[in-house]
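Good day; I would like, with your permission, to put a structural problem before you. What I wish to show you is a protein chain and, alongside it, a tokenised description of its three-dimensional fold. Thank you for your consideration; the sequence and its tokens are set out here:
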Amino acid sequence: MSTLLREHAEQLYAQELEEISRQETGRRPASWKLTPQGVVTYLTGGKLKNGFEVSPKYIGNKRLMEIAVATLTTDRALLLYGLPGTAKSWVSEHLAAAISGDSTMIIQGTAGTSEEAVRYGWNYARLLAEGPTPAALVETPVMRAMKDGKIVRIEELTRIGADVQDTLITILSEKTLPVPELNQEIQAVRGFNVIATANNRDKGVNELSSALKRRFNTVILPVPDTMEEEISIVKRRVESFEKVMELPAEPPALQEIRRIVTIFRELRSGTTLDGKSKIKVPSGTLSTAEAISVVNNGLAMAAYFGDGQLKAADLAAGIIGAIIKDPVQDKVVWQEYLETVIKPRDEWKDIYRACRDLS
């Protein structure tokens, strides 16, 4: 068993990728490890001709994955856009793993991401000693992906400054990366493309210029449509976490996952599931990713500070921490929800008491 805390997608799902590759017979675009249909099968799951079961990585509208994959067969880059926690980075990683067999070509966008992190940098010791030479050049993931014909991922594109964002325009439109110091350019090999992610709830973001927007096809990833869909996502991701961390705890009962998802969906929508009561909405996003985090934290509490069985007391701190982002406004919203929605539910007495004690 691997001792890595988090394996890359192409390592974790190597058997599935190999099996899909062996079974399919369709035409593959240049440098692709799988056919477009094979990539969609890998993402959405299904049964192959020989009966091999491929686990779903994305649970939702299959058509969105088909649009995303079709985009990457063209010269257009792909922008995965949506609320935080809607699996943008997860989908981005698995797309790169299935198409290029390598999800490690990545730039993490932050307010401090510089132009050198996107285009190329220099080994300044060699630069001072030798001047600008190919040996002194420091390649970025973008440059390596262009040379190798692979997918490069740019996470949180809108957190990068607008002037740095626009360095992508030449790369995306001309498929070249000029290196004027060496009087040369890097030309992209077929198979190269860019997958960027951005969320629409982040504060202090830098909007994409219209010139850059035109170089992307945008696929909006929504929050899960149904309760069952969201429960299935949480269950699968928690099971994966348990396996990697080897927690000495029992798998969480579906009932506990359902309660967490119910709380998050009600507070997100501003209404109870039965539609009878309106409730205030907190300032946070309460995404599926946060629901997964709450259950994972509860499992750790149950494993090391409980009897190994996930209970309401193990989940309470995680629930409150996820909901109360603003200590004044969100606390009022949470207290009202706790007293008017959770308390009257007879089967939720345990979670009411655990949350009330901590609140």
